Amino acid sequence: MTTGSRRVQTPEGLRHSVIHGPLRAAFAVALLCASLLVAPHAHAAHAIAQYGEPKYPAGFRHFDYVNPAAPKGGTLVLANPSRLTSFDKFNPFTLRGNAAPGLEMMFESLTIGSSDEVASAYGLLADDIVVAPDGLSVTFHINPRARFSNGDPVTAGDVKFSLDTLKSPQAAPQYASIFSAIERAVVVDPATVRFEFRERNRELPLIAGSMPVFSRKWGMKPDGSRIPFDQLAFDKPVGSGPYLIDSYDNGRTITFKRDPQYWGADLPVRVGMNNFDRIVYKLYADSTARLEAFKAGEYDALVEYVARNWVRRDVGKKFDSGELIKREFPQHNGTGMQGFFLNTRRPLFQDVRVRKALDLALDFQWLNRQLFFSQYARIDSYFANTEWQAKGLPSPGELALLEPFRAQLDPAVFGPMPKQPNTDPPGSLRANLLQARDLLQQAGWTYRDGALRNANGEPFQFEILDDSGSASSMEPIIATFTRNLQKLGITANFRTTDFAVYQKRLDAFDFDVTTIRMPDVQVPGAEQITRFGSKAADTPGSDNAIGLKSPAVDAVLDALVHAQTREQLTDAAHALDRLLMHGYYVVPHWYSGTHRVAFKRGLAWPKTLPLYYGAEGWITTMWWYADPQARSHTGTVD
User: Fold this and answer.
1) Is the separation of the CB atoms in 98 and 252 below 8 Å?
2) Total structural domains in the chain?
3) What CA–CA distance (Å, rounded) separates 237 from 22?
4) The domain containing residue 522 runs over which residues?
5) What is the structure's pLDDT at 49?
6) Residues linked to residue 186 through DSSP beta bridges, in sequence order
7) Stated pTM of the model
8) Within this chain, do residues 103 and 234 fall inside the same structural domain, yes or no?
9) CA distances for 2 relative to 33, 241, 309, 348, angstroms
10) Which of 140, 194, 431, 590 is the most exposed place for a label (fewest CB within 10 A)?
């Protein structure tokens, strides 16, 4: 599993998504790398693939994108991988509180994905995978060498305990949604566990295999009683991962050490990985302090998401001398959806014409020229940069999914995909705002008495919520957007709050508009239900931030997760993209095709890059110090 965070970093300071806890992000990346449709016949295998055979055969020695000879040692010091500025627990699976960064390094799953394939899963805790002929169950045999950090063997009972706990009310509610189609885990014997499904869904073996596994002894007291799972705070997790918590201080610093007894170091899926003896996270109060600390040498690597920082602020004597280095690394990830998310639970945003008008008020071309140094492209799909992006007119397969709901849908859904507004000549912001004004008038909003008002005389005003950690990065963008809205008579107030309050409000859906990035996926699957399904709209803390409730979307989601062929999956994904883009639930932002990384001299990485990866997780998992002895434990280079 790869690194994750409560809020995922994105271009121009957006470092938040709607997944909860470090392990949710890791879980999302596991789905990205390992989505599969299970073969229709029973088989035992080291790996399974969506179509054909996995890239790496049985007996492979390591993934192509690692350095099997990477030296071990040294301490890697990092800053906040998210906008989190403090932590108050070590349990990333519960809703309340803020989990420490890096905890994903303590947990493993039965399978793990390959970062140079879009649809494969290889055994990690499991050394054998058997999919039932009817597709209604999958059985995993646990590697007899697998051990938890306390030395206990990983057993089928622990796997069952993990599933039952994550589906219980004591875990964050979205886990019950993620694993809802898994009827139960059955302990066949101490080393064998079978997941039984409520329905035949080709993605379910993947979901079962990527579930984080932890020991039944986590939270158990010496007298045999148990601390309730949702009350576990600084009780150190008992997982099977390569790192352990070494020390922590005041909820602002945490140090992980590589487990000298780690059981899986020589597994093919682990060779060349986890090369640092220690990984330290220092949490800074805001993005400015974080950047200045890097330039002062307080930590080792910075993934830069703000274009103007990369060009203007990530400079200085240490960059000139070569002590600090800047590199751009290509990546082939889907973009995910990033933008201003509109909470349709609010009456103000329930009319699609209003939502489309807000989209017309964002001048991306101006922002890209003036603020982003022309480094970005506009997002125009929920699956941009992948084959799942809908284009042109609906295909016959898409129409078959959409036709039953024609009477409920905007006729535009059955036409071409919408294009994002453009202000480059012959287009202009004025033309876009005139179109927006007409849409608002159609929706009952007219300008009078100094403001845009509805029939009851109420002014059109709302709040854009953000946390104080990213305010400096987002403020010029939001200021430009709100100035354009003012020309329509709309008042948008930018409000910042501390991250804990911000997160609590998002969990309760107590916001009008906020900036969010949904993590990208290379193959869409069940995670789309938690993002856009009607049931998730009423689940506190769920990924359905926009509050979408649509029978048509629900039906397409059902078709997507039950697709039996690649063509069926493609049609469902295209239909979903078409419905969402025509709904204008988000004012889309922008994306880059590279990861921008600044780092200290002496750090090294594999010659062959992954195709689908997050930069932070790639650094912690696959980088190393060329001379580990030259790296002290204080965060400085000797």
Assistant:
1) no
2) 2
3) 13
4) 380-419+516-588
5) 75
6) 194
7) 0.78
8) yes
9) 10, 11, 26, 39
10) 431
